[in-house]
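Render this sequence as a predicted structure.
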Amino acid sequence: MKSEHRIVVLGAGYTGLLCAIRLARRTRRTGVRVTLVNPSPRFTERLRMHQIVGGQELAVHQISDILRGTGVVFVRGTATAIDAEHRAVAVDTPDGPATLTYDSLVYALGSSTDTSTVPGADEHAVTLNSPRVARRFAERLAELALAGGAVNVCGGGLTGVEAATEIAESHPGLRVTLISRSEPGPLMNAKARAHLHAAFERLGITLRVGSAISKVLPEGVELADGALIPADACLWTTGVRVPALAADAGIAVDERGLIVVDATLRSTSHPQIHAIGDAAAVRQAWGQVHGTCQSGLPAAAYTADSLAGRLRGKSVKPFRFGYFHQPVSLGRRDAVIQFTHADDTPRRWFLSGRAAVAYKETISGSPLKMYRLSRRVSVSASLSKGGRATRAARNAR
């Protein structure tokens, strides 16, 4: 190992932040310099973004405060290009352009909601990509509620469900319509899904299922069957896109732009680059891992440990992961927790009501606690390694 091995982590979301903190602790006194790059100085709790549109104020967590005492160097800036051949990252900072060279790169830039696939979505819909935008949207919803207005929530995934129920509970005077091509909660069992639909009915949410959205207009949403769902505001929660940074750099990506990784989460084309979180194409024996905090945090911890181990000359075992649950809040006073098999298909067991609310709050608040503990000890970030579903694949290598 060099006198100083330079590790650059791009992105201070849930995965990048944990990876940087854990790397710094695992490599202290070994001649390693860890640099974390992020456009905002504030850590965004994406698990709570739906609470903002419901009018709630979230605690402010500065990245520099979270990193204090870890030895991680924080650079506020936006990565604009990667020179994979010369191992350098171009970064736009408030003080001007900068270049960060690296020996190892951790790519943890995440994803955002995609408004480019449906005409009018980018112009007339709001996303939960930015806390600032979400806060302005919350103010608008409060005004519309007083006037008896209406809002369309587009997308029946977990984000759409949480946002629709949060808005409906916070603004009883607002007419909320959840629009989805398929039935919400498709990976829940029948009883958990029944609880979900009971929450929609209790909160007065209108559910429109079965037709794709063809256009977003100032006055509402037009469906593929020609129907118009009128509304005064539109929240877009469906579709995912990742930055083009990796593809532009010639790093191997799949058809979605995700970095293709091997069993140890290293780029198949550039092994000095590790990819974690939403921007990595991670496969397990049971199938493709989809980007969530549940899968991202174990990948971050694994990458920190495996990278530190490699620098010490140790062999690295393949990454193993299995899903454990689907926690879904239904406003502040209700939730449903569907427990799952490793491949995210539902088990028989689920929680609902107050017990589920407490469970969901514990899950949402756990990353920040994990960051604090990770400064001193190695904290387990995985609820499940997949059991038999991944053990057989590991033993076969």
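Summary. The chain is about 30% helix and 25% strand. The mean pLDDT is 95.
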